[in-house]
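3.2 Worked example (two chains)
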Amino acid sequence: MPKKSQSMIKIDRIDRSILELLQDNGELTNQEVADKVGLSPSPCLRRVRALEKAGIIVKRVTLLDHKKLGLALTAIILIGMDRHTPERFATFEAKVAEYPEVQECYLITGQDADYMLKVVVPDMDQYHHFLLNHITRIQGVSGVHSSFVLRRVIDSSALPLRYLS
């Protein structure tokens, strides 16, 4: 029988409801959350604080409309590395973390690549500049394959909480 991860924390129905509400709208007040989950404000706030302390609620963010801000081009970049060493990977990861254009970075398997990046820039000219002056200059990058998003069919940061017990 597989062991549960030590990082798993027991979440009850009310905690799950709180998380679903906050994922949908992080601007809800404690009073609004409490009303929606059927608690008074004090116990609700204690639960939210406990979820924060446990590291389940990591942070709250404001999502922006990329197109209205002129960031119309989203690229998915597959990166191959010349060597598979911890030092090479650490160098790459530290460098891409410096670039605000990189929204997501994953170390992957199952492709002819080691990393997958999601990058947002205004246009193809800016992408070309970013690729040539930043990504390809990172020590160890041996190959780059770019794909471009035509349309965001699903664009969500919400986790599927239905799997929680």
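3.2.1 Second chain
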Amino acid sequence: MALRIRLARGGARKRPFYRMVVAENTSPRDGRFIERVGCYNPMLPHDNSERIVVDAERAKYWLDQGALPSERVALFLAKFGIIEARPFAVRAKKSAPKRKAQERLRAESEKAAAV
């Protein structure tokens, strides 16, 4: 039984609210879960103390039991000092020029620098 600590979405359309839950890997995102360990309300301002609420004791317990946090939950737990912060994986930006265009730009800039 592989466990994850992840976010389950709630709230109305365009008014998201997330519960931080411990669930099996195979259960649906908003489906069955084992325990709720916190919540996240992205609609509140960043400086509001109720934006991210975590039950640190229960989160530590589930991490000790082998539960893996999702990427977003890992950020929240690192913010509260429960786990060590993980580096973000570098992701390709879809809006960036593709490989051939980058090569063409690089060649043009080298050509301009040589002149």
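3.3 Remarks
The radius of gyration is 20 Å.
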